Amino acid sequence: MSLVKASLRGLGAWDDVRANLDEFAVELHGDQQPISDITWNPPVSGTVYGVLLNYQGQYDKFREQFHQPPYKQPPKAPILYIKPANTLTGCNCPIPLPAGEERLEMGAALAVVIGKTATRVKAEHAWDYIEGYTIANDVSIPHESVYRPAIKQKARDGFCPIGPWIVSKDDIVDPGQLNIRVYINGELKQENNTRNMIRSIPTLIEDVTDFMTLNRGDVLLAGVPEGAPLVGKGDHVRIEISRIGALENTIAPEQRGESK
Q: What is the DSSP letter of 151?
């Protein structure tokens, strides 16, 4: 059992709970319960920053486009975007399928939680600025362009499930060697490993903090591997990252109230 940081509905805002990272279960009131039996809040409260094209396979997919207008050259720095606060939702909460859309793209990502203010951090010191790790689903409406900010496709309400908990960095020997698996309705649809990232986590932190400050509680998504699966209404999604845990959500029609 490992001590993890979580936000469970009905308990305190932030709780240290004991979790079985191999069996995806948590100890509550003396009993071990699977994550699927619990409703979770997002375990983070800061800004979530995503990074495009940080897996070699996904980068190779767009290689020819790099030499087309408007840029005519490969990106020299991380391509960043923001998953704003309205996108955050917890494990076992529904992912809304917007009206008029039939499919959503599931973006399995290792999420790095920043532990203290980070400005112009060198890669060799990056570990000092990490609190721990969790899992994120960088949900998107399918789209092609990586040059134009995909706000409408990526920043919808509920489009960033994250959790279920934060695992301390001390419990992860090497975040650059973690298996990532995505199951749709119990069937394995995607598998990759963080060793295929182009920029390692320390390098990402150095490159990003060279021009912007990351604050305590902010989250840096380390990228989404190629082959992100598509899902539709009623599908159940389970993202597993070794030694981190599992993030589960189900796709449901979006419920939007009318303004009064």
A: H
